[in-house]
């Protein structure tokens, strides 16, 4: 009951007029920053951090948290309408959001994204409110072997029941892993895979550069190729009755993804080093695996929008947890928030909940309020986004091209990455012509930099003995699940063959 | 989308005007930055160096010290090699400064093929030095350095310590301990000092050599215990923790918290940044930060910094030979 009382205080704080105004401003700014390709919550929070010195610390963090939330909603918008991931956290949203928009169901995708974000946000805040301090200790139990096992499980969800061609999926993952390895080796500190000694490769390949290349440029080329230059307009209508119907359809089709995303996203976001991007990709993978018809994902299934969107909002709350309770940021954005807290004179860490209850509960209260306003503001902007979609493709294509270039540059401020993005776009177009799934490559470049060091740290811990993954309970369970999933297609093949044989013999 | 764009532009414009208004006029000086300053950090987000860099930036913002913002830019790759390369090849040396750690000395020594001569860099400011402390988890039952040495010996090569990477500051201290006391330690590299502190709190590793600021949260919550400080004198914030010297080993090791400019920076720009960081150094915010984070104050003039660099290069050559020789 003490928690409810503290939460009540927090809500009162968040509902003060100045804070409400800041929340509405923050959510709106965040929504647009999130929708701009290449700019995500990291940029938004970093750009606006200095402005927060004008208001008291409580209000400042509330404002920044509102931007963070707004950006999580906003990222979905350009993913769906233009096919360019608006933010790193919304990459998985393009997988099904874009096909839905092409089918003329953009409003269904946008409504699903908004409601799933709201549900994910709400579930995560409730989890946060109830379990923050004990969950921080769960996060501490995740050492390198546990994290690696989790990463392997994420890969497994993309291989095991993908519905795609398995050798091609594996090849796609390997491509992503190679790109992920470019740059510096964390363990030895030596540069590696610096192709042709081009210094731009030293900072590695930012995965947003790959994602914008694949989904922005690649998608544009694909559309031009398939329509052969015919002027096309995407069917997109919007009406109140339509939104109501979309909401019903979302509730029917998207509940599974939303549930998975809300819980898995929170959990993955909570682990330091992971954050919202892996959280949303993993939730997509799991939703696809558990879905009624895995092969319908990637072709415009609202569940494929609901899973990553609920997950990225849930993960953004989750990532606050290690930041506040351990002083370790769970995502790049929380790292900047952490910097802000230090200058406001607050020390994040195990003592924060005890020493600064007003601040902590004010922040939690603002999560509830921000989440509510983000939903309202997002839904009210949907007609605008739909209207954009009705522009002829001859106008949209150059727009996509320009936004992709801007996004590729904004990610790292390096022209090298713009060229790289264009090359990835071309490469993706040809791979797609040969039916290679590209989502696994994007997954691999996000998870590779987490999986590789944790694998090597684990093996260093055990002096090279792989049994370390099976001798620790959490790691062991996760590993076994991952291995079963990877082998599942093999079992299925054997099963199908034996049945096929018996069927034949039956005929004879 | 045009509406989106124009809204965004309006917001950006409003923010820009707000920011300009904030800064107003700095002190009358010949040279001032004409665009945002690339404030490169030689470490990943969240670690000690990152926290300090962001604090310095915040003080500058709070006191309206610059007409253009310092924009933090984490380049921690390859023990800071990424940052050194970026500064070395900076297209605009007058707007590129770097927050350094001791990897400023060790990385060019360890990676000769980078062809980086730190003597070409421009000294800006020495903001203080950060001591190192040996930490264990409270559940280990170890409370003194002597017990720790025995525990390491008893583990016979299976004693696991976490750090930020071979050749990094903490690994040099651990290398010294191993050589001086004949210990066998298994060393696991992690991404940053913050992560190392968390790994110890979660008992993934048995001991760490961390800066006080990095381990402080878990120290206050009672999860970790300091055993010995690698400092010349007892630390103000840990008056009960003995120094290595008191225990009969003459060894102190600090991490420098310094700011340097890119090679080829103009004298006017160098003077501007030297003034800027002197103001920050003298500010109440920085002084109280040093106290609370157990940093030792140490202000050096540009000439003194150059001399300090020469001294540290020699010292690190010797320390590196101990872990790699």
Automatic annotation (TrEMBL), chain A:
Q: Which PANTHER family match?
A: BLR4373 PROTEIN (PTHR35342:SF1), TRICARBOXYLIC TRANSPORT PROTEIN (PTHR35342)
Report keywords, A-Z: Membrane, Transmembrane, Transmembrane helix
Q: What is the lineage of its organism?
A: Bacteria, Pseudomonadati, Pseudomonadota, Alphaproteobacteria, Rhodobacterales
Q: Does the keyword Hydrolase apply?
A: no
Recorded hits in Pfam families, A to Z, give: TctA (PF01970)
Look up keyword Cytoplasm and say if it applies: no
Q: Which residues cross the membrane?
A: 6-33, 45-69, 75-95, 107-132, 147-163, 170-189, 201-222, 324-347, 359-386, 393-410, 416-431, 467-491
The superkingdom listed in its UniProt entry is Bacteria
Checking InterPro entries in the record gives: DUF112_TM
Q: What is this protein called?
A: Tripartite tricarboxylate transporter permease
- Location of the DUF112 domain: 21-443
């Amino acid at each position: 009951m003490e928690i409810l009382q503290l939460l009540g205080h927090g809500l009162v704080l968040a509902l003060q007029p100045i804070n409400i105004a800041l929340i509405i401003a923050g959510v709106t700014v965040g929504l647009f920053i999130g929708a701009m390709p290449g700019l995500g919550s990291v940029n938004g929070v970093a750009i606006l951090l200095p402005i927060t010195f004008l208001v008291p610390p409580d209000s400042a963090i509330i404002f920044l948290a509102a931007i963070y939330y707004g950006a999580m909603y906003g990222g979905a918008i350009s993913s769906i309408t233009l096919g360019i991931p608006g933010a790193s956290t919304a990459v998985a949203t393009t997988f099904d959001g874009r096909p839905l928009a092409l089918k003329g169901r953009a409003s269904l995708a946008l409504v699903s994204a908004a409601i799933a974000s709201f549900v994910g946000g709400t579930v995560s805040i409730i989890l946060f409110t109830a379990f923050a301090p004990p969950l921080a200790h769960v996060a501490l139990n995740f050492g390198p072997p546990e994290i690696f096992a989790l990463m392997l499980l994420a890969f497994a969800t993309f291989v095991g029941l993908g519905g795609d061609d398995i050798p091609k999926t594996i090849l796609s993952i390997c491509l992503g892993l190679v790109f992920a390895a470019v740059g510096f080796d964390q363990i030895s500190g030596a540069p590696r895979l610096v192709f042709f000694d081009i210094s731009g490769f030293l900072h590695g390949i930012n995965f947003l550069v790959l994602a914008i290349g694949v989904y922005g440029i690649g998608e544009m080329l694909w559309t031009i190729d398939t329509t052969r230059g015919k002027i096309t307009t995407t069917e997109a209508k919007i009406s109140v009755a339509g939104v109501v119907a979309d909401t019903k359809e979302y509730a029917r089709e998207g509940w599974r993804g939303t549930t998975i995303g809300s819980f898995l996203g929170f959990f993955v976001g909570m682990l330091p080093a992971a954050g919202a991007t892996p959280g949303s990709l993993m939730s997509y993978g799991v939703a696809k695996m558990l879905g009624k018809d895995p092969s319908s994902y990637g072709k415009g299934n609202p569940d494929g929008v609901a899973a990553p969107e609920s997950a990225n909002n849930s993960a953004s709350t989750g990532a606050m947890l290690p930041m506040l309770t351990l002083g370790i940021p769970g995502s790049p954005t929380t790292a900047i928030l952490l910097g802000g807290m230090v200058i406001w004179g607050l020390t994040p860490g195990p003592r924060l909940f005890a020493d600064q209850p007003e601040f902590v509960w004010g922040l939690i209260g603002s999560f509830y309020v921000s989440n509510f306003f983000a939903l309202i503001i997002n839904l009210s902007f949907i007609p605008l986004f739909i209207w954009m979609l009705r522009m002829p493709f001859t106008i949209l294509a150059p727009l996509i091209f320009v936004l992709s270039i801007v996004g590729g540059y904004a990610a790292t401020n390096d022209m090298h990455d713009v060229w790289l993005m264009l090359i990835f776009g071309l490469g993706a177009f040809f791979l797609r012509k040969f039916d290679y799934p590209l989502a696994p490559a994007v997954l691999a470049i996000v998870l590779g930099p987490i999986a590789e060091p944790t694998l090597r740290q684990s093996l260093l811990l055990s002096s090279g003995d792989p049994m370390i993954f099976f001798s620790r309970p959490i790691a062991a369970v996760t590993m076994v699940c991952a291995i079963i999933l990877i082998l599942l297609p093999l079992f299925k093949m054997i099963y199908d063959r034996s049945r096929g044989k018996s069927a034949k013999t039956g005929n004879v | 989308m045009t509406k989106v764009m124009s809204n965004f532009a309006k917001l950006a414009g409003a923010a820009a005007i707000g920011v300009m208004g904030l800064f107003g006029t700095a002190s009358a000086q010949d040279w001032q930055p004409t665009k945002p300053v690339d404030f490169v950090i030689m470490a990943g987000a969240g670690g000690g160096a990152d926290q300090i860099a962001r604090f310095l930036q915040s003080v500058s913002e709070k006191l309206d010290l610059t007409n253009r913002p310092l924009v933090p830019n984490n380049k921690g790759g390859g023990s800071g090699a990424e940052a050194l390369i970026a500064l070395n090849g900076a297209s605009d040396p007058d707007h590129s400064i770097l927050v350094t750690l001791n990897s400023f000395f060790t990385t060019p020594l360890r990676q000769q093929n980078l062809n980086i001569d730190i003597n070409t860099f421009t000294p800006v400011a020495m903001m203080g030095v950060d001591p190192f402390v040996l930490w264990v988890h409270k559940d280990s039952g170890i409370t003194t350095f002597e017990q720790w040495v025995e525990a390491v010996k008893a583990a016979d090569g299976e004693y696991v310590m976490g750090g930020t990477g071979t050749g990094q500051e903490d690994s040099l201290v651990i290398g010294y301990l191993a050589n001086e006391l004949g210990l066998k330690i298994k060393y696991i590299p992690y991404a940053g000092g913050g992560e190392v502190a968390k790994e110890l709190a979660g008992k993934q590793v048995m001991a760490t050599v961390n800066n006080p600021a990095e381990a402080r949260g878990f120290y206050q919550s009672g999860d970790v215990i300091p055993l010995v400080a690698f400092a010349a004198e007892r630390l103000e914030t840990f008056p009960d923790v003995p120094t290595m010297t008191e225990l009969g080993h003459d060894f102190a090791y600090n991490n420098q918290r310094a700011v340097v400019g890119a090679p080829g920076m103009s004298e006017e720009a160098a003077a501007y940044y030297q003034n800027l960081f002197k103001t920050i150094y003298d500010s109440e915010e920085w002084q109280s930060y040093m106290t609370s984070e157990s940093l030792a104050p140490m202000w050096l003039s540009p000439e003194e910094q150059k001399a300090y660099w020469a001294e540290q290069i020699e010292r690190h050559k010797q320390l590196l030979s101990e872990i790699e020789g």
